[in-house]
Amino acid sequence: MLARINTIAFNGLNTLDVDLQLQISSGIPAFNIVGLPDKTIAESKERVRAALNTMGVELPAKRITINLAPADLLKEGSHFDLPIALALLAGMGIVPMEDVANYVVIGELGLDGSIMPVNGALPVAIHANRSGKGLICPETQGGEAVWSGLKEIIAAPTLLALINHLKGVQQLPQPQIKRKKTKVSDLDMSDVKGQETAKRALEIAAAGAHNLLMVGTPGAGKSMLASRLVTILPPLTTEEALETCMIHSIAGELKNSEISFERPYRDPHHSASTPALIGGGRKGVPGEISLAHNGVLFLDELPEFNRSTLEALRQPIETGYVTISRVHCHTQYPANFQLVAAMNPCRCGYLGQSGQECSRAPKCAEEYQSRISGPLMDRFDIHIQVPPVSPWDMAEVKKGETSAVIRQRVVAARQIQQQRFIEMGYPHLRTNSQLKGDILEEAVKLDDAAKTLLVGFAEKMKMSARAYHRTLRLARTIADLQNEKNVSKLHIAEALSYRYVMPSKQV
Question: Which of 133, 361, 397, 406 has the smallest CB count inside 10 Å?
Answer without folding.
Answer: 397
